[in-house]
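not sure who needs this but someone in the group chat was asking about Protein BUD31 homolog from Sinocyclocheilus rhinocerous so here u go. i didnt clean anything up, its just raw.
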Amino acid sequence: MPKVKRSRKPPPDGWELIEPTLDELDQKMREAETEPHEGKRKVESLWPIFRLHHQRSRYIFDLFYKRKAIIVNLESYADKNLIAKWKKQGYENLCCLRCIQTRDTNFGTNCICRVPKGKLEVVTRIKVTPSFFA
């Protein structure tokens, strides 16, 4: 049988520093994917996967753009589209790309992460009285 040639690029400089964190996130992602989903809604079973995806992308984004701790851009290990949104003003706290797609929601609204914190506090302080339902 002939040898299989693999063209593998050497890892970028500083890879040893971030490899344990990325390996840990990969392991958690595998666990979240294989976790049983009986008794959960379809979207509810995807929440841990979205959380880990966000955590991995934010880790690489912070290292490259905020702290400038790594020189090589590792966007191939993260979500390029999500990182592109984080660079734009007003999308810094976006948790996933599904949050800005109104076609995926029942009422054509956005996710809770898109609501400004000032308005969010006002909404939570409103009390519903029994006379409201009368």
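also Residues 15-133 form one domain. if thats useful
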